[in-house]
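Revision sheet: structure tokens.
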Amino acid sequence: MALEFAFVSALLVVYGTSYVFTFLRRWDVPLLAVEILAGIVFGSAFGFISPGSAGYDFFEALAAFGLLMIMFDAGLELDPEVVREDPLRVAKLGLLTFVLPFLAGVGFALALSLSPFAAYLTGVTVSTTSLGLIYPLVEDYGLVDDDRGQLILSVTVLNDILSVAALAYGVTLVTSDSPVLGVGLVTLALGFFFVVLPFVLADHISNTVREGVVSNPVKFGVFLMIALAFAVEEIGVHAVLGAFFAGLLVAIVTSDGHRVERDMRPITDLTAPVFFFYVGMNVDLGAIGGADPLLLGGVLVLGLGTKVVGAALGGRIAGLGGDTTRLLTAAMPGRLSISVAAAEIGLSRGIIGKPLYDAFVLLSVVSVFVAVVAFRYVANGAASDAI
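Predicted:
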């Protein structure tokens, strides 16, 4: 059987069109948000790629692999130990910036008579904050080693942990053939990866497999990601959770997830843009124009407003300084990977419909620009304020 290369035309569109929006990188807009825009414009609006395009099956498969890589990277970015540096303050801020938006999202969706699971996914989407977006902003302004920057990153890490846990339970309850067993397995996995592994077994595992990971982190990381994704899919839990746990395991074993992420950047750059383009091309622009303004506007207002309110209220309760509170308030609405992944999982598993999917994707794109602009504005005017 001869090899076929019809898929190259689809990939040419994906990789080529993203360059149209590269000027947005000057304002620290993540390239992946640019890829969503490219998918909306060149996929949804102009139809350069559609299910009838040559090589579309390969395009879809590469998009699925890209989603695994995105969740793997999300695991790499997390460091559960940073939460321990100031646990009480971080817990207050984390709960207010996650629980308040989550409850507001669930209540809003239920008020619109959406299904309980759609309401649950709405809560997850409006409550998450993307560490992959916030970390570069904190780093750009030299705040990584600053107490304020560490606090912001710690709260973001806790938000990501809570988001992944909530997403894991929600998806498992809906998609698992045995929901009770699935929830039990997810609970065990979360406890192992977020408690036992980082705080009990980290040193032992590092000494056992560290050499193999460090010598070839890309090969080890991809193998572990695929192996855990396959394993959790086989037991009835979504494959993306296996990819996330693989990234978290590698980060804990190496104690340097950001370096491993840089080493694996070529694979992410190859696959993640395809997923985000795929997300963008599935946005129905015609439906957005005729969408229920209450649904669309409500998701946007809640996704941005409740995070701001939660951060501002949390800053006051935790006794933060003015500049620190403003930096936290600017950062918290920023979301991308987890919210987009939740939207795609929800649509593909029949949990949500297209109108809510479109609202989630639109919120993800808008929140990137809002967080970047707001953080730059606040950081440029911030004094050396004590926490």
